[in-house]
Amino acid sequence: MPTFGSLLPVAARRRLLALLRVMLDFFRRWVRADVNTLAASLTVLGGLTRGLESGSDILRGMRRYLSHFFTSSIAISEENELNHEVLNWLRVHALEGKQKRSLVAQAPTSAADQGDPSIYCFRDDNATNQELDISYLPTFDMHYLWFQGSLIMVKRGLEQNISLRSLFLDRSTAAPKGKEPLLLICLGRTVEPIQKFLAECRRFAKFVAKDHVKVCTSTWYVYFDTWLLRSPRSLETVHFEQAVKDDLVADIARYMKPETREFYMQRGVPYRRGYLLYGPPGTGKSSLSFALAGHFQLELMMVHLPGVLSDLVLNRLFADLPDKCMVLIEDIDAVGLKRKPGGDDEKRANEKEGKPGCTLSGLLNVLDGVVAQQGRIVVMTTNHEAELDEALTRPGRIDKKVYLGNIGKESARQMFIRMYAPDHTTVLPTASPELLKLADQFCATKALHGKFSPAHVQEYLLRYQDSPQNAVQGLQEHINEQTRLMEEKKKTSEETTKNTGEETAKKLVNDEASGDKVSKGNGNNNMIEGSGKANGMAAKSDEKSDEKSDEKNDDKTSSSRDSLDIEEIEVVSPETSSDNQSDSSGPRDSPVEPKKDGGDQ
């Protein structure tokens, strides 16, 4: 049997042998290693590598076996609120200040701005420290901690969709994006240690949020993915009619009582409440919602309808609402939800004018349909209450409407006192009696009442935050300037409307003129065609009339002839009749015989 060397040409075999001699000389002279020894070493190293791989497979199988029979675990999905509470507890108790080799670092406020729900983003609105604390969170690697004498292992899962670049990243160095499931493992055949740990995480979350308002927002996902803890706002900082405010607070307080819930349930009434806050821009509708949530210690769930992809997503968001919460839907009139005319409320087709997203029908269903959540309070805000659909504002969906108008006399006085009253951080030179006097002077300006929004008045006072006297002195000049600007804006708007109307009228006139020309041209063509048709019909009628006249003339001729014959027969005298008897057989003297095939006889 021929060998590989025998198949090569002689010259090729010589060159191959020369190359091998050069390689052997290189290893002997420069590496100073025996080729046989080097080959044996490589063989042993390969065997060890293979043995380690087999050993790791054996250890992996043993770990899987031990995990299956000697450990217990609980999994938490990425969208569940408990996921964020566990991470927040780990951030505070297990990771900060501890010696860990792999962590994820992030600033809480920037994470909130980017929509990262990994932690509760605590925002102290009263804080003066400009430095941002760094938060540390677990990576995808396994993290171990001791809790009440039990070993708890927390494993953060990878995302389902992994990019090509992330395949080359190590699991312990890749940064999570905040939307990963958690797996909690403990030794033993019971999950009781994990349940105690989760209960502690829930307790800590409630403790942190006790003196804050928990704000939850949704973006393009099917769940609330951003959680903020903000300092509450007092109802006294929202300025509108005190009687209206007291009535609204009393209505919500009555609804929140346990006996009210029992009253609703016993009588089969859905236990939910809807409010509509309407009025001009800047009157504090959104601020009032936030203040009410803090006053009644409710979670504020903000639903951004333009970001909801479909009715199914909207149903999912409302299905995930807590038992007691306040749902805020801002600027409901600007969302663009409309319905086609015709039919009843339940049969009308609701849509969003060609844009993808939720429909009016979907919103109505989550407000008071079968899937509507019990126990929640829905607050909707709008600048134009008259533009809302009646089906949206009817009782059962909106139980109470609250009008927030421009600032009044008493509200302006309260705002002035609140803005310049001394507190524990600022010492103003203005004494309290003098402040009250300035407040009376400020609110005594009648041109201020009902003309400007609370936001506008507050912005004006902030210009003179260090001098209330200047705020009072410059008020009238500010009002005159704003009045002039309003009149100019109104005049410009009227001129624009007038010009638009004139242009529209001219366009209509031009369209009518062009339409008349077209119709006139069509009329001329129709007249020409009609005249042609008339001439043709006239010609045909003339032919027919000629034929009829010919027939009449023939009839007249024959009848005249007949009459002449009759007359001639009648005038023949008896004397001459005998002379003409021989000619009686002629056609002229013969009587006309009637036709036998019909006609007259």
TrEMBL record:
InterPro entries the record matches: AAA+_ATPase, AAA_lid_BCS1, ATPase_AAA_core, ATPase_AAA_CS, BCS1_N, Mitochondrial_chaperone_BCS1, P-loop_NTPase
Disordered: annotated span: 486-601
Species the sequence originates in: Apiospora kogelbergensis
Membrane topology note: Single-pass membrane protein
Keyword Signal (UniProt): yes
Residue ranges occupied by any AAA+ ATPase domain in the UniProt entry: 271-408
Cellular localization per UniProt: Mitochondrion inner membrane
GO molecular function annotations of the record: ATP binding; ATP hydrolysis activity
Entry coiled-coil feature ranges: none
Pfam families per UniProt: AAA, AAA_lid_BCS1, BCS1_N
Residue ranges crossing the lipid bilayer per the database entry: none
Domain BCS1 N-terminal: from-to ranges: 40-238
Signal peptide positions on this chain: 1-33
UniProt feature, compositional bias: Polar residues: 574-587
Family, as annotated: Belongs to the AAA ATPase family. BCS1 subfamily.
Lineage: Eukaryota, Fungi, Dikarya, Ascomycota, Pezizomycotina
Keyword annotations: ATP-binding, Hydrolase, Membrane, Mitochondrion, Mitochondrion inner membrane, Nucleotide-binding, Signal, Transmembrane, Transmembrane helix
Name used for this protein in its record: AAA+ ATPase domain-containing protein
